[in-house]
Amino acid sequence: MAKDGKRCWPMVLVAAVLGCGLAQDALAKDLLWGGDTRQSRVLTVYSDGFAQVEESRVGTLPKGLCRLRLADVASGIVPESAILRGEKLSIVEMSVRPPFTDPHGLLVQSIGKTVRLVRQDPRTGEDKSENAVLLSVEPHPILRVGDRLEINHPGRIVLPITPETPMPGQAFLDFTLDNAAPAQRQLTLQYLVPGLRWQADYTAVYNEEKNLLDLSGWIGIANGSDDSFDGVSLRVVSGNVARVVEQPRAGAFRAEAKPMLVDEPLRPPMVAGYRLYPVARKVSIDAGERKQIAFLDRSAVPVARSYRVVDPVGVFRSAPGEWPRRGAFLRLIFDNTVPSGNGLPLPAGVVRVTAVRPNEADLFLGEDRIEHVPEGAPVEVQLGRVVDVAYSARRMDFRAVSRSTSEQHFNVTLFNDGEREANIELTQTFPGQWSIFDEDTAHVRRDAQTAAWNVIVPPHRSTNITFWVRNTIGN
In the chain, what are the helix, strand and coil shares in percent, each to the nearest 5? Predict the structure, then answer.
């Protein structure tokens, strides 16, 4: 119960009132707040396949106990996640009424209410109707019409549409409230909805002659739920939020994911280590829709082009002695900065690169997935294998020093058949303990398992890298 007039109370009970002994006739009034009481709606979408909905609703509440029904709630609501807050009131009970879209469910919701019975006159073909009260549905509809009961009525039962009529795409939340004083209240409702997700996509247009690229970023929202969200404030969260996975319960709401961003570059705030990306304008997302909104636009970003050769040789004795020519990976590297300072933190996503060609159609070069890139950090995009820059390799000698130690002599040839010099990085991983004791080009120990060589090969030339490695595997 409320202790003072300034405290905001959370939703605390989802089942029967414990120890309150509240009878229905003790409630002061039944109230319905429809969609017209909603002042604002914020939709926060996570990449893990769900979203958080926050609504602000305003209406008048009487003093004391009352039953408040909030209509037009998303049909896929996770009931246990619902939270209601408001000043000078406490929440003592909550229940969820899911939407009914089948005829039987609509009839059940109309028990005790006035409906219309419609029957066609067999002589004239004209419809005739009369009012009736629906008394029961199972096993057959029973209706009271004036001073008689109708069972298995041969006509149609027509249900009136009221603010409480359950419609596709919306559920109801019923709260029992204890309000301190009659007044207009602003209530905040929060809940989770499954079936929505987002991802970042980037397009990069690469100018090879100027070593520049234009980068655009898009946030794609996929609404795989049965709910539409009209005119909401949209936010997306970068990071993976932990969720408890439980077995589906009988009667749980259905919300299956089906197979959709920020209007201008806003600096995303960091909340408990997550990054929050807000959209600058209101967005509408229909059920089943996939929508993309631009959030990043940078021009003339300096880019470095290089090539990568990964594990050109096999170090086990059973590996072949020669490796035929194969293309190197094309790699583009640029810094996540802007001329005025650091750049916008880039959420993880897919970068698709196209090369601009003067007086000709552009050429798609490939795509790569990047992880979250902080402000000022480098962005590395590794694309497909090229033809002009390539390598071949062979084992020139093998010596068994002991049962677990061997020494091997390798030669790797790097080819550049292009018109520009090629900056090539060669990396080789070694199992166990290893050391390179003789080489014609110095290497760098990248980590405990990796050696790296960086060389520049002039156009229409080739370069050899030879080295001896001593390798110990096991004891």
Answer: 5, 60, 40
